[in-house]
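Re: [ENG-882] Designed sequences occasionally contain unexpected residues at chain ends

Forwarding the minimal case from QA. Structure tokens:
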């Protein structure tokens, strides 16, 4: 966008050759380039194709006058702004009013002097530079907002979706699975005896452990619609859309197996010398009565059950089973 000293491309529109050539000469003497046009309809085409920086527009022309041209240019710009200066022998208050109303930015009385034209162009260039700065700031703001929006959805420690994002996604997936008539699985996971981990290894090591578990969860959420999130503290959430009950339990077993293979040491767990998880799973085809709160309560209840049954397992009421029986190699060491 033009700075006050840069050279402009100026579209000069006048049906009469002499004033058009005079205006052209004056503009060129100020170091700017000129596109000439004698016909109002053609002027609109030239404007659209060549995208000049500024338009000098005669008012009185046959068939379509300068006001008509200004209106066409303004409606063609769609959010843009190219300065339009009227050049006219008519310069009563009413003429100026009509010109501004039609979308013009200023009015210059013919015959135009080079000095007046220079002053008007300089003023327009200033406005153009300010507008360019404003657009730049708006774009920066838009980008910052997009970044903030993204950050507001992410848990800072683990990089997983945070509680706010999880709540949003859960509502969306309940609605989507209800429409599709498909099963939705929700799992709440909790690291076993994490207080003891912190107490023995320290909070910094505890944080690192949370990050490692989060990485594992991210790696096991393979489908595009699967979401892994940190629901708070040492509690994680998985949203697995279009995942039936049996699939959810298979997934849970695979996750426990991956965690076992990762062999993250737990310094003080009565369950295992490795970090273990307990999980509560709930699966349903959502109907009109299904709520996010209801699903979370059911999953939390199932999680409580998994803890009560000895930890290091998933429990699902709907399946009436837990993952324990299938994985003898996961038993406490
Ligand atoms: N390092 C770390 N610890 C956290 C964070 N958030 C919560 N905790 C700790 O997680 C522990 C959770 O303890 P509890 O709720 O008693 O659960 P638990 O010790 O895992 O016991 P069970 O769940 O019954 O197996 C507490 O010691 C919290 O301080 C965190 O961001 N970083």
């Amino acid at each position: 966008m033009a700075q006050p000293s840069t050279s402009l491309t100026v579209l000069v529109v006048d049906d009469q050759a002499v004033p058009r050539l005079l205006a052209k000469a004056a503009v060129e003497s100020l170091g700017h380039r000129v596109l000439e046009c004698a016909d109002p309809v053609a002027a609109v085409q030239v404007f659209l194709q060549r995208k000049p920086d500024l338009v000098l527009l005669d008012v009185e022309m046959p068939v379509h006058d300068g006001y008509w041209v200004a209106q066409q240019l303004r409606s063609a710009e769609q959010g843009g702004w190219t300065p339009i200066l009227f050049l006219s022998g008519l310069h009563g208050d009413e003429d100026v009013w009509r010109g501004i109303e039609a979308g013009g930015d200023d009015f210059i009385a013919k015959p135009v002097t080079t000095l007046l034209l220079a002053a008007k162009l300089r003023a327009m260039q200033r406005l153009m530079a300010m507008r360019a700065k404003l657009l730049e700031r708006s774009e920066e703001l838009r980008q910052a907002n997009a970044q903030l929006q993204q950050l507001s959805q992410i848990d800072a420690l683990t990089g997983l979706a945070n509680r706010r994002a999880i709540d949003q996604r859960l509502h969306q997936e309940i609605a989507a699975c209800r429409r599709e008539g498909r099963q939705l699985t929700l799992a709440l996971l909790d690291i076993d005896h994490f207080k003891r981990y912190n107490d023995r290894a320290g909070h910094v090591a505890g944080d690192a452990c949370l990050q490692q578990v989060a990485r594992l969860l991210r790696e096991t959420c393979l489908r595009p619609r699967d979401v892994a999130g940190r629901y708070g503290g040492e509690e994680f959430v998985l949203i697995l859309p279009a995942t039936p009950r049996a699939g959810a339990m298979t997934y849970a077993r695979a996750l426990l197996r991956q965690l076992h293979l990762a062999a993250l040491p737990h310094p003080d767990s009565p369950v295992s010398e490795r970090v273990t998880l307990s999980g509560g799973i709930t699966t349903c085809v959502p109907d009109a009565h299904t709520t996010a709160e209801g699903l979370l309560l059911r999953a939390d209840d199932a999680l409580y059950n998994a803890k009560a049954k000895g930890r290091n397992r998933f429990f699902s009421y709907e399946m009436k089973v837990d993952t324990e029986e299938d994985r003898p190699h996961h038993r406490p060491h």
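QA comment: On inspection the terminal residues look reasonable. The chain has a mean pLDDT of 91. Proposing we downgrade this to a documentation issue.
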